[in-house]
Amino acid sequence: MKLGVFTVLFAGRPLEEALDYIASKGLEAVEIGTGGYPGNAHCDPDTLLGDASKLKAFKQAVESRGLTISALSCHGNPLHPQKQIAKEFHDAFVKTVDLAERLEVPVVNTFSGCPGDHEDAKYPNWPVAPWPNEYQEILKWQWEQKVIPYWSEWGRYASDRNVKIGLELHGGFSVHSPGTLLRLREAAGEAIGANLDPSHMWWQGIDPVQAVHILGRAGAIHHFHAKDTTIDPINVNKHGVTDMQSYALMLDRAWQFRTVGFGHDLKTWADILSALRLVGYDYVVSIEHEDGLMSVDEGFTKAVANLQQVLLREPLGQMWWV
Predict the structure, then answer these.
(1) Alpha carbons 204 and 225: distance in angstroms, whole number
(2) Is this model's pTM higher than 0.85 or not?
(3) Cα separation of 74 and 153, whole Å?
(4) What are the pLDDT digits (tens) for 76-119?
(5) What are phi and psi of 93, to 5 degrees?
């Protein structure tokens, strides 16, 4: 496996300066934002798709530093019930897939999106309980009328361009767990897979090691994020895991994102990476930084150091008794 980073945390730096810094830390890959929530500070699809020389220069900037692009990321909600909002996210996704094909990047990361509860809704509706029965009716309508049709069509679009779609399993979106990912993959095809982020598993009460086994045995892990979570044992009993308070209210929240090793120990992270190896994932571990208690440089540097300790960098050798 290779160690990489989601470059959105360096959005304030010019691309080449960010790449120099990343390479100096010994990393081998970058995941780059192309629109949607991550923004496109380092990679504007319109510019690169419209100018072959700029596309070539962009690719050279990455490769000349010994780096590869693990994924292009355009996280958004293309199923948003407000059509203009949905269109902006959808257009960013389509352009990102087109750019990934041109750059020979194998994965585009995004969210599944979440529809409203009927055609004329204004806001997304994320059902989280099977009763009262209206919630089941909403969920059925969302999946049958919106989620499956959209991703069946655009999964084929990506597949036709040799691009896989890594859906991040994130609360608030229709695909948020291993089970919902596999449900969509069965309906929409194998271009659909996970951009698996353990941080979102922990707060949902899902063991990331088991998530790796469930998805990995199905060949459904297309990309992997490295981010940690800590759960406050007192606050979680007050607010529950679906805590709706602002991430800024860290002292009172039930859980919060941390950099790798500051929510769970390195043995836990070693178990996760070992599970990835066991199920045949041999691609990139991409660091994502959303730790409100650390600066970007501190959180990134500590994540790199911790992962370098536990990352299995060499192929498994033959056992002596074989």
Answers:
(1) 16
(2) yes
(3) 18
(4) 999 999 999 999 999 999 999 999 999 999 999 999 999 999 99
(5) -65, -50
